[in-house]
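Build the 3D complex.
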Amino acid sequence: MLNIKCPYCGDRAQKEFAYGGDGTVKRPELNKEVSDKEWDDFVYMRKSLRGKHVELWHHIFGCRQWFRAQRDTATHEIFKTAKISEEI
Amino acid sequence: MQKYSVFSLIKNAFSNHQNWDLAWKDPTPKKQYDVVIIGGGGHGLATAYYLAKEHKITNVAIIEKGWIGGGNIGRNTTIIRSNFMFDENAAFNEFGMNLWRNMSQELNFNVMFSPRGIINLAHSDAQMNTYARRGNSMRLNGIDAVLLNREEVKKMIPMADFSDDVRYPIFGGLAQPSAGTARHDAVAWGYARQADSMGVDIIQNCEVTGFDVSAGKINGVRTSRGDIKTKKIGLCVAGSTNILAEKLNMTLPIEAHVLQACVSEPVKPILDGVVTFGAGHFYISQSDKGEMVMGGDLDGYNSYAQKGNLPTIQHVLTGGVALFPFLSRLKMLRTWGGIMDMSMDGSPIIDKTHIDGLYLNCGWCYGGFKSVPSSGWTFAHTIAQNRVHELNSGYSLSRFSKGYLIDEKGLGTKTWIS
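Done.
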C-alpha cells in the first residue's frame, strides 16, 4: 500500500485517495482559438514516463482536496507532494 | 524442424529424451534485415510467423530485451473471446477465433485451446437489456451469443451465491459458448518455433537503445548488441510502448498501468468456463491444473512495476468471495502483475506512423492475449504491404484526433477510472 502525504492532512494510506492522471497536462486557455492538434494533445496524448512522474491525486476519503505528487512509476517512491497552487 | 507427434515422442523415449532438437536457435544479430520486430512477446512472435508464412518475408529479426514469452504473454489469464458489440472489434476478434481453433495443428504445438465458454453476469433488468442488445449485435456479426436467464446461469454455476439478499443478485447473463482459454506459454513457444524454422532470427537479451531515423524514414535500430540496418520496424512492445515512443519523439494516446492477477491452490474441477462479474470487478476461470485463476481491474495509477499493490488484490477477492463464497476457504498460491498499454478508448492501435517504415502495434489494454493471432496476422499484412488490412483499419492512430473512437467499454479518455 502506498503511503501518500496529503499537503493538507499529512501521511495517509493509499485507500483514502483517488488518482487523477498526469499532472503536467494543461487545458488550452478559454476564449482562445484551439487547433485540433492542441485539443488532441490535451485530451488524449500522454508521455506516461518511466521514472519521475508528476501526477494529480484527490484525497477523496479525507479533505477532498486535489494536489500534485511526484512519484517514481517504476518503484512507487513518492518524492514530494504539493498543493495545486504550489510549484512541484 | 523436427515434427512433434506421438511417434516422435515414442522414438525419443528410447534415447531418454536426450536428443530433441532445440525448439529455436540463438543467433547473433546480422547487420541487416528486411524487417525488424521489436518485442518477443505473443504479438511480435505471431507477426514474424505470419510475415514468413503469409508474405514470404523471412529475413526478419525479433529483438527482445529479456526472454521470449517473459512479458504479458506469460502473465495474462489466458481468456479467448470475441463477445464484442462494435463491428471493428467483432470482425477482428472473430477472425482471431478461427485462427485459435486451428492453432495447435498449424503450429504443430499443443496450445491446449479449450473452448469452454464465457458468461458475463447481469444484475438488473437494465443490464439484461444491454446484454440482449450486445448479444444481438454479436449474432449479426456471426458470433455465437446466448442470453441466459437466472435459472440457466444457476445450472452452469450452481456454486455461485444466488440468494436475494446480496448486493448484486444474479438476474442472468450473456454467454459466448465458443470462447475459452489456452495455454499462454505454448502460444509463444509455438509461434517462436515455427517462425525460427522459416528463417526468422529470434534475438533475446537484446535491448533497443535508439533508432536511426533520417528524412522521416527508418534506416535502422541501435541495440545493446550492435546496430542493425533495416527499412521496416514493427513495434510490438505493449507495456513499454511509451518508453520507445519517447526515443522516437512521439507521444501516444497511451498510458502504462499495472494489472494484477492471482491463482489459488489447485482444487478438483468446479468451474467449467470463464465467469466475469463486472459489477464486482472480478473474473475467474479454472486452469487445467485445477487452480482458480482470478483477476480484476487496474491498480489505478501509472505504473511500470511488474507487480501490484495489495489493496487491489483485496478488492478483487472481496468481489470474488461475494460471488463464490467457497473461495474464502482457498489459499492463494501466487499474485503477479503485468504492464498494460492502456489506450484512451480501450481499443488497440495497429497502424503505420508518420515515420516511413515504422509500424505501431500497441494499446492492447486488458485484451492482448486473445488478439495474439489476429494482431500478428493483420500487423504482418500492414508491414508487408505497407497498408492496413480491412480488419485493422479501425484501429488507426488518427482515430483519436478525428473522433472515431472505438470506445466499446465506455472507459473513454480516463483509463485510470476503472
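The radius of gyration of chain B is 22 Å.
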